[in-house]
Amino acid sequence: MKRTTFYNIHKNLGAKIVEFAGFEMPIQYSSIIAEHKAVRNSVGVFDVSHMGEVFVKGEKALDFVQYITVNDASKLFPGRVQYSAMCYEDGGIVDDLLVYKIADNEFMLVINASNIDKDFAWMQKNNKFGVELKNLSDNYSLLAVQGPNSLKVLQKLTDTEINLEYYHFTKLNFAGVDMIFSRTGYTGELGYELYFTGNEKVAEEVWNKIFDAGKEFGIKPIGLGARDTLRLEMGFCLYGNDIDQTTNPLEAGLGWITKLSKPGFIGKDVLLKVKEKGLDRKLVPLTSDEKTFPRHGYDITVNNEKVGFITSGTVSPILDKPIALGYVDIKYAEIDSEVNFLIRGKEIPAKVVKLPFVKR
Amino acid sequence: MNIPQNLKYTKEHEWILIEGSTGTIGITDYAQGELGDVVFVDIDPALTEITKGDSIGTIEAVKTVSDIFAPCSGKVIELNEKLKDSPESVNSDPYGAGWMLKVEIANTAELSDLLDAAAYQALIGQ
Q1: Residues of B in contact with A288 (CB under 8 A)
Q2: Does residue A316 belong to the interface with chain B, where contact is any CB pair within 8 Å?
Q3: How would you classify the pairing of strands A44-47 and A220-221?
Q4: Identity of the residue in B60, B63, B91 whose CB atom sits nearest the CB atom of A292
Q5: Could you give the domains of chain A?
């Protein structure tokens, strides 16, 4: 089992540690609900060092990224980030990822921890452009600092004025460490992600400086439990739950990142056909007024007949009601469609709604 | 870990306080810690009788859902109505405000296989 550079910090904070994607990660420190609210109301810090970082370098780096991802990376300039996905030839999703344009001939691809080996093998297999591919996942620590007070906390630790738009990044000396400093996150809040190398001592120093700076804002460490409820309130997809090799980006609501007008990329031919034919099913946000909560894998029914299934479900700590994502038959995909969650044999009335569940 | 001496326990992490023929039932400190934030205790308000070993209802936590198993058989005397508005009592005070139901114990002989505090402590390895 792998550990991140912050493992001892988590241990000392009394975090509940679980196995996640081969890492020993903190799922919660105090309470998922308290941690969730800290991020919505002030500021919290997530250790997400388990995420993978692959660097793509070479004259044809852009061609490679264009071929292997569905979004249009030609729109990027150094300092710009893009949400994207990699597909198989059949349109199924290999992974969703962030594409960072570091320089004209260099990109950083940030991938899910559970997919690092699979993704890297896929990239190598499809490297017909002779680019240099380096999997530096084990070298990088990654902290996400998220919440309305995140900027106030972080600005204290660098002389450079932090003035980043959403999905932009810069290289910065922060807390004495050179890092990639990115205005991104998985919470829907103002927030930043800090990528840096170095040993445990370097990482712990960065962590401690952030917590000292954040003291006046009641800064809290946030576990994977609240990371999941925060992303679900926004309706962000989680690979392995809402998207995987059996789902395509169009039915997953990721049409906005799938640029079918872009020249040849893996999966394009099938996705064009899917679009032409129309979708059979769609990933939709669902909620209900009952205090019974849909979970991953539960059926969605109409008149006791299965019309779909839940891919992610929980209680929204902000709304105090059930929120879920699930695939439904296309005829129930319209907003306000009435369906049921099938929970322990009982049909619980539910409704298709609009995202995000929690307005920011 | 709080494991009061005056209670009996099940292997499924319920506790029962036995006072004469009345039993008060809840889940243990260990169980609430494993579940995390409890958001709803779902026991049918029409429940009148429970059977030892059967599910009484469910506990919904943020990450998961779990059954509550009856530590004994008996007639339901009272459900803890306050849990509707403050399910978090199960986390903050599992042996007090977090109690779930009171029953009239049908057969005291059934209680003999419940665990005492020491045996329960050994079970959870604390």
Answers
A1: none
A2: no
A3: parallel
A4: B60
A5: 7-49+138-233 (3.30.1360.120), 281-354 (2.40.30.110)
Structural domains of chain B in order of their starting residue, each with its CATH number:
8-124 (2.40.50.100)
The CA distance from B30 to the nearest CA of chain A, in Å, is 13
H or E element in which residue A133 lies? strand A132-135
Alpha-carbon torsion (A94, A254, A193, A76), positive or negative: positive
Q: What does each C-alpha distance from A324 to A316, A344, A351, A355, B62 come to in angstroms?
A: 9, 17, 10, 11, 12
Which of A227, A289, A314 has the highest number of chain B CBs within 10 A, making it the mutation to test binding with B? Answer: A314
The tens digit of pLDDT for each residue in A194-249 reads: 999 999 999 999 999 999 999 999 999 999 999 999 999 999 999 999 999 999 99
CA distance B109 to chain A (A): 32
pTM metric for this prediction: 0.95
Whether A225 and chain B come into contact, CB under 8 Å, resolves to yes
